[in-house]
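Input/output pair, single chain:
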Amino acid sequence: MFTGDRSGEWLFRAMWRAGFANQPTSTGADDGLVLDDAWVTAVVHCAPPGNRPTPGERDACAVHLLREIRHLRRVRVIVALGGFSLDALSRVYGIRPRPRFGHGIELVLPDGRTLVCSYHPSQQNTFTGRLTEPMLDAVLARARAMADEGLRS
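Output:
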């Protein structure tokens, strides 16, 4: 997921700086990247036209997202990249009304996990400065601190 595209370049550099990855890049499945205490997934696993998933695709993939979340038993923190991800996670967790998206917003999910929101590292957000590397670093550093605290307790 995210391997070999500009969003991935941003994400894996930030994950490396936060201590979630052993290297700052990922160029292919055999490039040596190892994630530590992290799992990267997507709300929609298909490649939709224009790289814009539809609400229908989100809803069709919700069962897969829920299954994946349930298998990740040690997960303490989930980082949602973008409002689309927040909306999908809100639906999966049955959160109503849907929380308003904002960069750095945190909320406790019904299963006790914490959700932290970040702007998606898309070119639209990174080229315009809506998301900067320090902003993404701050979200992942917060996630790292919460995950580490959960492992100690």
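The longest strand covers residues 77-81. Strands lie at 77-81, 106-108, 114-118.
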